Amino acid sequence: MAQPNLDQLLEAGVHFGHQTRRWNPKMRRFIFAERNGIHIIDLQKTLRQLELAQKLAREVILRGDNVLFVCTKRQLVNIVKDEAERCGAMYVTERWLGGLLTNFQTVKKQVRKLKDLEAGSEAGGDFENYTKKEQLMMSRQRDKLSKNLSGIKNLTRLPGLMFVVDSKKERIAVAEANKLKIPLIALVDTNADPDLITVPIAGNDDAIRSVELMTKSIADAIIEARREAPVREEVEETESYTYSSDRGAEPEGDAERKRKRRPRRRRAKPEAIAARLKVGGEGEVEGEAEPAAEPEQEG
């Protein structure tokens, strides 16, 4: 695997951290020294972590899973997008949609909707059957969905690995990945928490050349692994259905659930209970009144 050397890291400015007053004490093990109020990152440890990250990316690709690149910093968006497309990975370079991983089924519906809108807007598509106003509204909806979901259009299941630039800025994405136990590789600066990341790579996450060098290294490892990995067809996860002649098609497991369901007890309505008590009370009063009337008849 191609890996940058120390000179390349120095030229790219990977060793520059944040100001000392903005540091996270958990990054102490990756800091080499302090110069003019700025922390200097230990590049030997950065190279070691980069090698571990490349091995992890390689394992994930050989396993048949995909990688998701995440970076929403404006000056770095094009770099991350180009490298993700080059290695065939998915990417999120616009706003991270809350629940993109934890509510993945809903996101899949939105992706399906985007594909339908794109198919309809093509020449000879369904859009021709609508009025101009409806076409305009649908094209606006398509553009809005495309802006946020174009990078994950072909993501049919949860990614096997996430590569994040600036884990502090992308804290929501990191939290969702940790909740679902998705391994993380991240370029972390001296102000971030490395304990949240599976393989943290200490380095400058603001400089364009630094991010370009690190992203290129991960992308190269993915490309190399794809050459060796067997070709597998992407199968979209769908609900399995069973068919019954009485009930028709229904999701598998529904029939068993219906069998196991306990019979529902019917609760008596308050009006019925009150009416029953009233009838019972009248009967008792009549029963007591009848013996008192007998002696009068004898006289």
Structure explained in plain terms:
The chain has helices at residues 6-12, 43-62, 77-87, 104-121, 132-149, 171-179, 208-228, 254-260, 270-298, and strands at residues 16-19, 31-35, 38-41, 67-70, 90-92, 161-165, 184-188, 199-202, 241-244, 248-251. The chain is of the alpha/beta class and 299 residues long. It has a five-stranded parallel sheet, sandwiched between helices. A three-stranded antiparallel sheet has the order 1-3-2. Strand 9 (241-244) and strand 10 form a beta hairpin. Helix 2 (43-62) runs parallel beside helix 7 (208-228), helix 3 (77-87) runs parallel beside helix 7 (208-228) and helix 4 packs across helix 5 (132-149). The longest helix has 29 residues, at 270-298.
CATH topology title of the domain at 45-98 and 158-228: Rossmann fold
Q: What is the average per-residue confidence, as pLDDT, rounded to a whole number?
A: 81
Shape: extended
Task: Note the beta-strand portion.
Answer: 5-15%
What's the total count of β strands? 10
Distance between termini? Answer: 122 Å
Low-confidence stretches: 238-250
Fraction of residues in H or I helices:
40-55%
Named at the architecture level, the CATH assignment of the domain at 45-98 and 158-228 is 3-Layer(aba) Sandwich
Q: Quick one: CATH class of the domain at 45-98 and 158-228?
A: Alpha Beta
